[in-house]
Amino acid sequence: MRVSLPAKTATKPKAIIGVSLKMYFGYQRSVDYCRDVAGIAFAHPAIQSGDIELFVLPTLPVLPEAARILGTAGAAAGAQDIFWEDEGSFTGEVGGKTVAELGGRYAEVGHAERRRIFGEDDTVIGLKTAAAYRNGLTPVLCVGELHAGSPEEAVAQCTAEIDAALNRAQSLGPAGRTIVAYEPQWAIGAPAPATPEYISAVITGLDAHLRTLPGQADSRVIYGGSAGPGLITRLDSAVAGLFLGRFAHDPKALKTILDETTAWLAAAEATV
Ligand SMILES: O=C[C@H](O)COP(=O)(O)O
C-alpha cells in the first residue's frame, strides 16, 4: 500500500526530542525499535507538523536502515560519534562524510562516555564538531559537569566546553546549527534526572550564552541524563527538549514523552 505523508510545514521546530541507543541494542532489536518509533512518529501530529524534531542515534551499523525507516515517518537518524577527518589512513574510524552518505543527519560529539572512556578532550571534540558542520550534519554537542554543585558552577563549566568546541570548529570552517545536549555527568545512568529547577537554571544560562555567539541563532539546548516521562512538563521554556537514553527504550515511553512535549508547548503558547 502506498501512503502519503501529511505536508510538513517549513516552520522551525519548537522542541527537539533525541534518543541515543548507545550500545544497548543489537542490530535486529535496534531495527525493530526504529520501526516502532516510526509508527509513533507517523501518527503523531506534532512530528508531522514539524513542531517536534525527533531523531534516533542507533549503533552505527543500523544507521542506513534507521535513516530509511525513520525518514519515511518525519523523523531522522544519526551517529553517536564521528572521526574528525573525512577519509584516509584511520583504521577503524568512521567519518562524517560516510555518515551523511548513509543517510545520517546528526552526529553526536563529546558524550561524557567518550570523554571518560576514550579520553576525548575539548580539542578532539572541536575537531569532530567541525567535521559534523563540514558534512552537513547537525552536531549534538554534549556538555556537562562531573559533580553536582551549584547551577552557576555548571553554567561556567558548560559554557567553557561549548566555547572550546565552537571556537575550534569555527577556526576550521563555517559553523551551522548546533544542538547542545546538557548532560550533567552525575545524572547519566542514574535512577533519576537532575531536579527540574536545576535543569531549568543551568539551561537558561547556557541558552543565554548561545544567543551571544555568532552563527548560532537557530541553535538550542536540550537536557539529557536519566530523562524520561514526567520531566519535560516541569521544565522552563529555555529548555528546548530532551536527549533520552534508557527511559526511552520502551517506545510507549517515547510516545508518552512526545505527548507531554506537545502539551508543554501548548501550555507555553497559552501563557504568551
Ligand atoms: O545519551 C544519553 C544520555 O547519556 C542519557 O542516558 P540515560 O538517560 O540512560 O542516563
UniProtKB/TrEMBL annotation:
Any GO BP annotation: glycerol catabolic process
Assigned GO CC terms: cytosol
The protein's annotated pathway: Carbohydrate degradation; glycolysis; D-glyceraldehyde 3-phosphate from glycerone phosphate: step 1/1; Carbohydrate biosynthesis; gluconeogenesis
Subcellular location(s) of the protein: Cytoplasm
Pfam families assigned: TIM
PROSITE patterns (alphabetical): TIM_2 (PS51440)
Catalytic activity: D-glyceraldehyde 3-phosphate = dihydroxyacetone phosphate
Presence of the UniProt keyword Transport in the record: no
Swiss-Prot/TrEMBL keywords: Cytoplasm, Gluconeogenesis, Glycolysis, Isomerase
E.C. no: 5.3.1.1
Cytoplasm listed as a keyword: yes
One MF term in the entry's GO annotations: triose-phosphate isomerase activity
Cited InterPro entries: Aldolase_TIM, TIM_sf, Triosephosphate_isomerase
Principal location listed in the UniProt entry: cytoplasm
Subunit and partners: Homodimer.
Family label: Belongs to the triosephosphate isomerase family.
Protein name stated in the entry: Triosephosphate isomerase
Species this chain originates from: Pseudarthrobacter psychrotolerans
Organismal lineage: Bacteria, Bacillati, Actinomycetota, Actinomycetes, Micrococcales
